[in-house]
Amino acid sequence: MYTAEGKFNKHSIIEQYYPLVRRQAFNLKVKLPAGVDVDDLIQAGVEGLLSCVDRFDPDSGVAFSTYAHQRIRGAMIDELRSRDWLPRSVRRNGRELEQTIRKLEQRLGRPPEEREIATELNIELAEYHQLLLDTNNGLVLSYDEVVAETPGNETNDEEAEPEAQIGNAQLKQLLVEALDMLPEREKLVMTLYYQEELNLKEIGAVLDVTESRVSQLHSQAIKRIRSRVATD
Questions:
Q1: Are 219 and 193 in contact, with CB atoms under 8 Å apart?
Q2: Engineering a disulfide at 118: which of 126, 128, 135, 145 sits with its beta carbon 3.0 to 4.6 angstroms away?
Q3: What's the pLDDT tens digit per position in 38-89?
Q4: DSSP states of 17-82 as a string?
Q5: Tens digit of pLDDT for each residue in 130-159?
Q6: How many domains does the chain divide into?
Q7: Which of 97, 116, 44 is nearest to 75 (CA)?
Q8: Which pLDDT belongs to residue 9?
Q9: Cα angle vertex 157, ends 197, 67, to 5°?
Q10: What is the mean pLDDT of residues 4-30?
Q11: 185 and 108 fall within a common domain
Q12: DSSP assignment letter at 109
């Protein structure tokens, strides 16, 4: 992995870590719309891998493999975000939904049920379920990435000032608390998806529901979390 001069050999690194890049790209691809090309994810991952060579600090106490894993995934997420494939109207609807959930939770003192949210939005339950599917842009997000996308918290941890890092840590604690407040069914979906790394079909089999229903539950959980983190 190193040259005779003790520097990273980029060709050797790509050869060694390319299987990891491909694996991460295909893991993401199964969670994304059909229009996303896996080759674009792989290219972004390779670029992220190469950036590790210039940014990695051997004295940081972090193994290069761990750092590379994080940077490869991060580069793929950045590529997806840069495309902004969700229409503005869908994003606007998603924000409105989060605000509605927040208001209902404050009013009721508990997580609102689906029918209560639909009623507040003045739409039928079936229409609300479709709205969840349309606005489910959180599928590629990890818990920490949900925090990173919370308004007013766009700072990169690696480049943040100490004060900003403290703020990020506080938000992450709020995120843990928000996750714990989820209804049990949604909490199970999040656990199976992020911790156990099951895909939607596998989670559907566990819960005995369709993939579409799992997607709705996931979307609803993400919006509950974001609405709570944004207000605390």
A1: no
A2: 128
A3: 898 899 999 988 888 777 777 777 787 888 888 888 888 888 777 665 667 7
A4: HHHHHHHHHHHHHTTS-TTS-HHHHHHHHHHHHHHHHHH--GGGS--HHHHHHHHHHHHHHHHHHH
A5: 998 887 754 454 444 544 444 444 444 444
A6: 2
A7: 44
A8: 66
A9: 55
A10: 76
A11: yes
A12: S
CB 128 within 8 A of CB 118: yes
Q: What are the tokens at 122? A: 């003045």
Q: How many CB atoms lie within 10 A of CB 204?
A: 19
Residue 2 lies in a domain: no
Nearest CA-CA partner of 48 in 69, 30, 26 = 69
pTM check: above 0.85? no
- Encoded amino acid at 158, one letter: E
Whether residues 143 and 99 fall in one domain: yes
117 Cβ neighbours under 8 A, 6+ residues apart = 97, 100, 101, 104, 128
Which of 83, 112, 129 is the last residue in one of the domains?
Answer: 83
Determine the Cα–Cα distance for residues 193 and 171; give it in Å rounded to an integer.
21
Burial of 6 (0-12, 13-18, 19+ CB in 10 A): exposed
Q: Which of 7-11, 18-22, 56-60, 149-153 has the highest mean pLDDT?
A: 18-22
Contact 201, 211 (CB under 8 A): yes
